[in-house]
Design a protein that fits this description.
Length: about 190
């Protein structure tokens, strides 16, 4: 059954056409269900939108989704709103995965080296009682408390061995390469 997927990406990768290749690959499939997803992402809004309005927009677009796919280009890891989309997806309980897209030719037929892993720049720590999750981000080489979302209450209390410990998201979420891992044929399996 096709999932409703939220795509998180740096808008530069839309301008370069890399993000579009992934988001629109279903157009060349005989049946949209063959792609394994329905796109629920949003396009970057006007730069004058307030942070609160952007959060509300992202939160609204995440509703009804079960999977968040982070399209990883050169600058994705550093984008504030990509980080927020990842953290909100965690809080919501979405399946999360990353897809490297720099191997896709851009509008000028060029490829790039793989971009840094955005999951390596985000981390979390369970509270000592296991009821809350505190989120951190890597800034200037130091782990600092994430400011765009307060610690949140977990639906299930963390087991005692995990309480009070810090984890990077990179240890939790898979990353694929659109070109090397044949995303065109494999994406539906990745989001299952």
């Amino acid at each position: 059954m096709a999932k409703r997927v939220f795509f998180s990406f740096h808008y530069q990768d839309v301008i370069d056409f890399r993000a579009n290749v992934v988001r629109n690959h279903w157009l060349t499939k005989p049946d949209r269900k063959d792609a394994g997803f329905f796109d629920a992402s949003i396009w970057e809004k006007a730069k004058r939108t307030s942070p609160l309005a952007l959060k509300r927009l992202i939160n609204g677009e995440l509703q009804g989704t079960t999977v968040t796919t982070v399209l990883i280009g050169s600058g994705t890891y550093a984008r504030r709103w990509v980080r927020y989309e990842i953290i909100k997806s965690m809080e919501k309980g979405n399946q999360i995965l990353g897809v490297h897209i720099n191997g896709i030719k851009d509008k000028n037929q060029r490829t790039r080296r793989l971009g840094p892993n955005p999951f390596a720049c985000l981390g979390y720590k369970y509270s000592d009682d296991g009821k809350k999750l505190h989120v951190y981000e890597l800034k200037n080489g130091k782990w600092v408390q994430y400011q765009d979302l307060a610690p949140y209450t977990l639906k299930t209390v963390a087991p005692p061995p995990k309480r009070g410990k810090f984890y990077k998201l990179s240890s939790d979420y898979k990353i694929y390469d659109w070109v090397k891992d044949d995303g065109y044929s494999s994406f539906a399996k990745w989001v299952e």
